[in-house]
Design brief:
binds phosphoenolpyruvate, two-stranded antiparallel sheet, alpha/beta, TIM Barrel, 8-stranded parallel β-barrel, about 260 residues
Length: about 260
């Protein structure tokens, strides 16, 4: 059975003091019972300690937005998986489309990062998704299959990870995929994971791309959409709390 996940990617927003403020506002708004929804936030690295303090005693979990695949070394400006784990985080985003677009990440580098995360007991969320040109050229499924096959190469079938399907054309644009478009790709992702030898029924597959309180319910009604990875609407306490609340009202365990 798969629990619904609401994950907030804060990108390069919220300094440590802003993080304390937003989370102080958020905590009293979270009414969903413990464990009803898995809520995870991904603040900037430098704001993680403030988030850890603010969220102590709550069931909101934390992750990092990226990592370097080596565990240590002369890599100025980078942060490794054991450092993230040592801080007390459990999750990490891997291969977000902004990292692929602006920082040259490839399927090969996401694979190295997936290995590093799993080796250090972090739960990675591998982000996949097509551009508008690729969708219009009917390349969506081929592209997704490549991102999964290459990004997950060599990963143990027992490893715990999640997938986020984020069509690039829907990220930060206000254009959300229809629930049917998203469900088609999610079903294909699950089928591909099965073919690759993973226990696909157990893998949580999140949708990301302009998810807001007014469109999340229809997405979560779909059988293969197990949650959302949210950028803009996760930045404010009120909208993140609303997403968690709406998700907690959907039958929250999916799959066999
Ligand atoms: C994201 O950054 O992963 C994302 C989906 O952003 P937004 O919700 O703002 O489209």
């Amino acid at each position: 059975m798969r629990q619904i996940v609401i994950a907030g990617n804060w990108k390069m927003f919220h300094s440590p003091s802003q993080t304390t403020q937003v989370l102080t506002d958020l905590i009293p708004l979270l009414h969903a019972g413990p464990g009803a929804v898995q809520a995870i936030l991904f603040p900037p690295f430098i704001s993680l300690p403030a988030a850890i303090s603010a969220l102590r005693g709550t069931n909101v979990e934390l992750g990092a937005q990226n990592l370097h695949h080596e565990h240590q070394g002369a890599f100025t400006g980078e942060i490794s998986a054991p450092m993230i784990a040592d801080l007390g985080c459990q999750y990490v985003l891997i291969g977000h489309s902004e990292r692929r677009q602006y920082f040259g990440e490839t399927n090969a580098s996401t694979q190295q990062k997936m290995q590093a995360a799993i080796q250090h007991a972090l739960i990675p969320i591998l982000c996949v998704g097509e551009t508008l040109d690729q969708r219009e050229a009917n390349q969506t499924m081929t592209l997704i299959a490549e991102q999964l096959t290459q990004g997950l190469a060599g990963i143990s079938p027992q490893a715990r990870f999640m997938i986020a399907y984020e069509p690039v054309w829907a990220i930060g644009t206000g254009k959300v995929a229809t629930p049917e478009q998203a469900q088609d790709v999610h079903a294909y992702i699950r089928q591909t994971l099965q073919t690759l030898g993973f226990s696909a029924e157990k893998v949580q597959i999140l949708y990301g791309g302009s998810v807001k309180p007014d469109n999340i319910a229809a997405l979560l009604q779909k059988s293969d959409i197990d949650g959302a990875l949210v950028g803009g609407a996760s930045l404010e306490a009120k909208s993140f709390a609303a997403l968690v609340q709406i998700a907690s009202e959907i039958p929250n365990l999916k799959g066999a």
